[in-house]
Design a protein that fits this description.
The protein has two domains: 63 residues, no CATH class; 230 residues, no CATH class. By secondary structure, the protein is of the alpha+beta class.
Length: 322
């Protein structure tokens, strides 16, 4: 990346950001470099950790979610960035206008509601994502229902506690009303495991364990995660979410992204009765302005005709802890 940037006539300074288990503002040396730069590109986890923090957020900062050269060279990294910025905007507008949004999945997820305030536009993080792979988080304040969890409860990568995830043996249902989890339903072992995990993580950081902040789903059909999620849950949770086959909630803490991510595989998202996502397949042509957008970006249209299906599933086809 440095060679390419310098070949374009850009001045480049590389800085190795040390790993920090907790969310902190950049160290003074790095902060000074960022203030002097026209753009800062985060390849380290630090960018993802501070993406919702307001300090220096108005400066030009980009968080890279392509994990390696293969992802960067794939359709995920090479389809025009602005195509997915426009797509995200169309989805945000559709959700904002909706009278009713319903989300289901084969495992039993079923929740319904609407965007919190039609007069307030849904917004994304304080920094730019690259690639643009999700629409803006939808607040849960006017939603209720249940979220089916199979395989594990994963950390969000905000902080790094040990362990940051836990195994779910069967199917665990997480019931919620607005911004609060109201209960767990499933095997006794899974209910105990989930309760202890939420309580332990929340106690570690002084959080409301059962707060549910928001949800959103992936929009980029080129986002592929070829390893199984269980091989490295921290790596998986920081990248696979951009595929339309995954939807996730931000929970455990009132500030996004929370500390515990609830993940839904192959969601169907109906907006005023129209399935914009159908069994994990995003249908841009069903959006107002979607057909025109696809016609404007043939490479994006081609990706939607042949979407990546690997999002970390195990051989059984489900997400697994191991």
């Amino acid at each position: 990346m440095r060679r390419v940037a310098e070949g374009l006539g850009l001045g480049v300074h590389c800085y190795a950001a040390p790993f920090d288990r907790d969310v902190n503002d950049p160290q003074p040396e790095l902060a000074a470099l960022m203030r002097d730069a026209d753009w800062t590109i985060f390849l380290a986890r630090l960018g993802d950790q501070i993406r919702f923090r307001t300090r220096d957020a108005k400066r030009n900062q980009i968080i890279n979610y392509a994990l390696d050269r293969d992802m960067l060279a794939s359709p995920y990294g090479t389809i025009k960035y602005w195509a997915f910025v426009e797509l995200s905007g169309l989805i945000n507008d559709a959700l904002q206008r909706a009278r009713e949004i319903q989300v289901t999945c084969p495992a039993g997820t079923d929740f319904t509601g609407r965007a919190a305030d039609r007069s307030t536009r849904l917004t994304n993080t304080m920094r730019r994502r690259f690639p643009m792979s999700v629409f803006a988080p939808v607040p849960t304040v006017n939603f209720s229902g249940r979220i089916a969890q199979k395989g594990f409860l994963a950390g969000t990568g905000s902080h790094y506690c040990t362990p940051s995830s836990c195994e779910i043996k069967k199917t665990l249902f997480v019931d919620f009303e607005g911004t609060q989890i109201t209960g767990f339903d499933g095997s006794i072992k899974d209910v105990i495991t989930a309760t202890e995990h939420f309580e332990r993580v929340a106690k570690r950081y002084g959080l409301d364990p059962y707060y549910v902040h928001s949800w959103h789903a992936g929009i980029h059909p080129g986002c592929a995660y070829k390893a199984t999620a269980g091989q490295n849950l921290e790596r998986w949770s920081g990248s696979a979410f951009g595929n339309p086959r995954l939807l996730h909630f931000h929970t455990c803490g009132e500030n996004p992204p929370g500390e515990i991510s609830l993940n839904v595989l192959v969601p169907t998202i109906r907006v005023d009765g129209i399935a914009l996502w159908e069994n994990g397949v995003l249908m841009p042509e069903r959006l107002v302005g979607g057909r025109l957008l696809l016609a404007s970006y043939p490479e994006m249209e081609a990706a939607f005709l042949n979407p990546a299906r690997q999002v970390g599933q195990a051989a059984c086809g489900q997400l697994s802890f191991v």
